[in-house]
Every structure is written in C-alpha cells, then in structure tokens.
Design a protein that fits this description.
It contains ten helices and 19 strands. By secondary structure, it is α+β, with helices and mostly antiparallel strands. An eight-stranded antiparallel sheet has the order 4-5-9-10-13-17-18-19. Strands 3-11-12 form a three-stranded antiparallel sheet, with no helix packed on it. The longest helix has 22 residues.
Length: 388
C-alpha cells in the first residue's frame, strides 16, 4: 500500500482512521502506527466528519454486504495536508484494496507535482525557473493551470492561481494575530495577475512573465486529485464509489439500492441551529468554501482565509459558498471564485455553465440570507430554486 509516513500534516498532527474509531496522533507518534494503518487500509470503514466544508454520512464500522454481491469498503490516508478518503462497493477485499492502492498512489504522484511545501515539487521548480524561459511541465500540471486560467477569465480575476504572495502574507497574519500592513499587501498584490501566466499548448510549457510570481493551487489542487483518483478507481472496475479529498467530494455511480451518495454541507450557519443541507449526488462533485475553520479575528473583525485577489484583502464576516459541478476541480475552483464575487455575478456565471449550480450563505444585517442559482437542490434550507 502507499507510504503513510512521507509527509506530516501542515497543522502539526495527523488523523489516522482505525477500523473502529478515529484517533489523533502527533507526527512522531503517527509514524509508529504504520502497521495499524496498513491493517486499516485493508478493511477500514469508519465514521468520519470532515473538518473542512463537508461531512459524509456512513453507517457502519466494517464492510457491509449489500443486497447484491458487492460489499462496502472504506480507506483513508493523509495527502496534501488533509485526509483523503475512498468509499466504494466491490466484489472482494482483494479488488477493493488493489483499486484503493492505485488511487492513493495517484494522489501521492500529484502531491509531488503540485505541492508548494516540497522544495523539489514540479510546481516549485516552475516558480524557480519559469520566469527566465518557458518551462516544460507535465500534462497534470499543465491541465491544472489551464483549468485555473479558464476559471480566472470566467470570473474576471475573482479566482487567480498566482495569488501565492498574498496567501503567504495572510497565512503569516493568522499566525501572528496581526493584520498585514497595507504597504505589504500592495507589494504582494503587484505580483498577482493570472494574465502574466503564458501557456504553450504545443510545447506544454509555462512562462511566468514577472519574476517573483508565486502560484498557489490550494483552491483547485485537491479537487483535481479527487477527479484523478475517481478515474483510477473506475479504470480498476470500481464504479460505485465516492472520493473525499479534504473538503472536496466527487462521486461515481450510486451505492447499491440508492439513487446517490448522501453528502452533508457544513455551511456558515452551522452553529445557528439551522438544519444542515444534505445532498444526494451521483456522477457529480461538490465543494464548499468558507471560513468556519480558518480565520483571523482582530478588533472584533473576522477575516477569512479566502482572499480577494483583486483587492489583496481577506474576506470579512461569516459566509460560505457551495458549488455542485460535474467534476471536482471545477467545483473546487468555482467555490473560491464565487466567494469573492458578488452573489448576482456568481449566479450569472453558474447559470451559464452546464451541470453547475451553487448556494450562497451570507450574514446580512444580523440575519442569515440564502441565495441559489438555477438547478441547486431546493431541499437545502427549503428555498425555491433561483430565489433568496
């Protein structure tokens, strides 16, 4: 099975799922439990509520026989600074384990390509050398950047993969508890502009037109990885499956006897006594962006980890945006883009794209307001489609 010890969690601890419970370890302690993790991966099925954006309902702590010959299996591993999880129905544990191993290996391969924490990743090499001459990249990195630029143009810069300098600035602000200086924001913002990224589709090269640019794939990378893991599982003959990559969820065919996978949205109003929105998904993806778990409070103001690349400032107040799309990379990127756009502009963009719908949860004048684009399930918050 894939190595479980190669990369610690960014937050200083890791969560490893055991067949009967979830446990939290320090990084050093986690390494000593590799044997237990390997055993878990062969038969693991655990109840695990995600800390970023979405929760998945599971009903059992071991493989459960369905009405047909398929059994339910669940596997989890740390990847890209969070927990990646696969739930599937397969004919045997041999088939399930083989498919899970291939999918997690694919995620590890993508982490080595897209990580901005590994000095030798392909992304880091691009940022080091890509401003001096066109830099040849893999098909994966090229595809992620091409999708990023498409969303950037679609959102008129509300999503910008070159936001890295601002991300670093606000990450340090959350650690220190102090707002960035406006001059620092202006300096970082001068390096942020997706139009300074030039892709050559013939030679598969990337050129960064300004020295010092820093790319950040945090708002699309996990979604892309989830899509690729799903593709691997399907190539292994596993079609009734769901992949969870942190807060990103993508589904294949539904479980036996069901019309879809049940996915609970952890929206910004979750602590207000509002019944959570539950979706039933099949062959679709969903992503939620919000500040529920990463934010900075200064002088009574709450600043999200989501940054508006056009202003350089983090979003203020409590809010969340949920996007349903046909693939996880699109849902992931659009959830961030729609967070920094006006609701009306977001609705306009969502309704221009086939298979895309969205929910906006906003705190306005001390009250929660809900907005949906056409096609978003009306069961969420009891709202009719396309209305407040």
């Amino acid at each position: 099975m894939p190595d479980t010890t190669r990369r610690p969690f960014r937050g200083g601890s890791r969560v490893l799922l055991h067949p009967s419970r979830a446990e939290v370890f320090s990084n050093d302690a986690a390494i000593s439990w590799v044997g237990r993790v390997a055993a878990c991966l062969r038969s693991c099925s655990c109840l695990f509520f995600l800390g970023l954006g979405l929760g998945i309902f599971t009903a059992s702590s071991r493989p459960v026989a369905a009405k047909v010959s398929a059994q339910r299996f669940e596997y989890s591993l740390p990847r890209m600074g969070t927990i990646f999880r696969i739930e599937m129905y397969a004919a045997s544990d041999v088939d399930a384990s083989k498919a899970a191993e291939a999918a997690f290996s694919r995620a590890e391969e993508l982490e080595q390509i897209m990580s901005d924490y590994r000095a030798d990743s392909e992304l880091m090499l691009l940022m080091r050398d890509g401003a001096t001459a066109p830099f040849p990249v893999s098909s994966d990195l090229y595809s992620v950047l091409a999708k990023s630029l498409w969303v950037s143009r679609l959102s008129r810069g509300a999503f910008d993969v070159s936001i890295g300098p601002l991300v670093d600035l606000w990450r340090n602000a959350r650690k220190s508890g102090r707002l960035p200086d406006p001059e620092e924001i202006a300096k970082a913002k001068a390096l942020v502009d997706y139009r300074n990224i030039e892709l050559d589709p013939v030679h598969h090269t990337v050129f960064l037109k300004r020295a010092g640019m820093k790319l950040d794939l945090g708002a699309i990378g996990k979604g892309y990885a989830a899509d690729q893991m799903l593709a691997v599982l399907q190539s292994q003959g596993i079609h009734q499956t769901m992949v969870v990559a942190g807060g990103e969820v993508v589904t294949g065919e539904p479980p036996p006897g069901s019309s879809g996978w049940r996915v609970r949205i952890d929206s910004a109003d979750s602590d207000a006594g509002v019944a959570p929105c539950t979706l039933l998904l099949s062959a679709h993806a969903v992503s939620t962006s919000g500040d529920e778990h990463q934010f900075l409070e200064v002088n009574g103001h709450r600043y999200s980890h989501i940054i508006n690349p056009r202003t350089g400032w983090a979003l203020e107040g409590k809010s969340s945006t949920t996007v349903i799309a046909r693939d996880s990379a699109t849902a992931d990127a659009l959830a961030t883009a729609f967070s920094t756009m006006s609701v009306s502009d977001g609705i306009r963009v969502a309704q221009s794209l086939p298979g895309v719908s969205a929910l906006w949860v906003r705190r306005v004048g001390g009250e929660w307001k809900y907005y949906t684009s056409r096609g978003f399930p009306a069961s969420c918050h009891g709202l009719p489609e396309g209305s407040q």
